[in-house]
Amino acid sequence: MDINGLLESLKNCPCGREHTVDIKAVEIGHGLKEKTAEILRENGFPVNILVVADKNSLGASEGILDVLRQGGISFELKLYDNFNEPLMEFVHEIEEACRGVDGILSIGTGSINDVCRKAALTCDKEFAIFATAPSMDGFASGTSPIIENGIKSTLPARQPSILIGDTAILAASPAELKSSGFGDIIGKLTALVDWRVAHVLVGEYYCEQIAELVRTALRRLISMADRVTESDEETAGFIMETLVLTGLAMKLADVSRPASGAEHMISHFWGMRKLSVGKHADYHGKKVGVATMMLVDLYHKLAELPEIGFCEDTVDWDAVYRGYGEAFVDYVKEMNIPSATENVTPESLKAAWPEICKIVKEELPSYEELLDIMERAGAATHCPQIDIEEDLAWDGLDFHTFMRHKITLSRLLYMTDVDTRALGLRF
Ligand SMILES: [Zn+2]
Ligand SMILES: [Zn+2]
Predict the structure, then answer these.
(1) Helix (H, G, I), strand (E, B) or coil at 51
(2) Cα(259) to centroid of ligand 2, in Å?
(3) What is the Å distance from ligand 1's center to 26 Cα?
(4) Along the 427 residues of the chain, how does pLDDT read in single tens digits?
(5) What is the DSSP pairing of strand 151-156 with strand 143-148?
(6) Rounded CA gap, 134 and 36, in Å?
(7) Nearest Cα to 195, choosing from 369, 343, 406?
(8) CATH class of the domain whose range is 177-206+257-422
(9) Is 305 helix (H, G, I), strand (E, B) or coil?
């Protein structure tokens, strides 16, 4: 990926913000496993490192340890059996293991990278990722979701300085993981709607150049939907590149808006509720994809309502607190006092509504079109496919928006007379 070219194209951006990234190199291509040591060294990565992998990710990148050895990189290996959840205890183990080294190379996708990213920051070590599956959008992230005492929180972490993806390995990863990555990227559709809505309604910062960067990647990815489940290197490489790009878009804009809106909040809400009863939630991107389908249905139906009444906020806060559970009440209060809608009045919402409806129509494909795209890409589209029962699906829709201090179109429902139960939503 041409990072310098990307930065160059955003120079003197009309949005007025200077767009920068910390990442030095993103290398995605065929046969790059063999060049791992070379890429690390070229970019000034230390030669005395800790390699963290699990049996799956190391198996997928067979031979990589020899490549490092032959490339003059000395390393210690921390090998896990299977990495399901990003637990704080793993972070502590890695912090312990990296004492005598100068950098951490994480081999894998998802939780393993999250844990290493966190440990790299607390121990102040250089950090690089060798990705084994294009399954979610957190590769370039500077934060990690970590679970401590049963609660998942997003903590500051270190953005990798180098990201490597060998398309032969990415393409050979399970179809379910690639389809999950596809679903995560589809979530940018509703993220962009929410971003523009917040901009129109309360003048929140927005950058059209970055939004267009995300839109262009989305369009190209959608054109590849039929090939997602195949072992196609070009498609797997592009999914990976788009996942990294959307992660970088958040850093470039310095807000999470270009890559994360109500669909991510629904996914996090479901994950949190599953965790509260000791269950694992399905893959991040699968949940995000299903949540996006729900929201595309909702947003179009809202935009097509012939008549709509606007009012002061009608949130039943006790119901919200019950929805999140005792352990999260303080967190929810912190996010919602003052309310994300404090600067929105029924009048200002009414005045902006025609523009909001226009944004929905401009940004979102129809529900049927999106369903077809998702099915062709092998992505989950309905709640039963990700083991979300009807009650939890509704709770996700009703309560997700209180997870962050953020205006989303779904949040504005509470300032209207719309009855979501009467919309005939499909999930
Ligand atoms: Zn800009
Ligand atoms: Zn995501």
Answers:
(1) strand
(2) 7
(3) 21
(4) 898 899 999 999 999 999 988 899 999 999 999 999 999 999 999 999 999 999 999 999 999 999 999 999 999 999 999 887 899 999 999 999 999 999 999 999 989 999 999 999 999 999 999 999 999 988 988 889 898 877 778 899 999 999 999 999 999 999 999 999 999 999 999 999 999 999 999 999 999 999 999 999 999 999 999 999 999 999 999 999 999 999 899 989 989 999 999 999 999 999 999 988 989 889 999 999 999 999 999 999 999 999 999 999 999 999 999 999 998 899 999 999 999 999 999 999 999 999 999 999 999 999 999 999 999 999 999 999 999 999 999 999 999 999 999 999 999 999 999 999 999 999 9
(5) antiparallel
(6) 18
(7) 406
(8) mainly alpha
(9) coil
CA 18 / ligand 1 centre spacing (Å): 7
What is the DSSP secondary-structure string of 318-332?
HHHHHHH-GGGHHHH
Give kind and range of the element (H or E) at residue 168: helix 167-172
Taking a C-beta distance cutoff of 8 angstroms, is the pair 207, 156 a contact?
no
103: its two tokens: 């950098």
20 CA distance to ligand 2 middle (Å) = 21
Tokens, residue 340: 């994300």
Ligand showing the shortest atom-to-Cα distance for residue 291: 2
C-alpha–C-alpha distance, residues 106 and 52, integer Å: 5
Task: Compute the distance from residue 1 Cα to the ligand 1 centre, in Å.
Answer: 20
Alpha helices in 187-232 (DSSP H): 188-202, 208-222
> Side chain identity at 405, as an amino acid letter?
H
As annotated, the residues of the chain forming the CATH 3.40.50.1970 domain(s) are: 3-173
Enumerate the β-bridge partners of residue 143. Answer: 156
CB 126 within 8 A of CB 46: yes
Burial of 134 (0-12, 13-18, 19+ CB in 10 A): buried
End-to-end CA distance of the chain: 37
| Nearest-ligand number for the alpha carbon of 288 | 2
Distance 247 CA to ligand 2 centre (A): 9
Does CATH place domain 3-173 in 3.30.160.70? no
For CATH 1.20.1090, list the domain ranges present in the chain. Answer: 177-206+257-422
The model carries a pTM of: 0.94
Could you give the strand order of the β-sheet that contains 126-131, starting from the edge strand earlier in sequence?
25-29, 162-166, 126-131, 103-107, 48-54, 74-80
Q: Which of 291, 256, 255, 295 is nearest to 271 (CA)?
A: 291
Rounded CA separation 111/50 (Å): 17
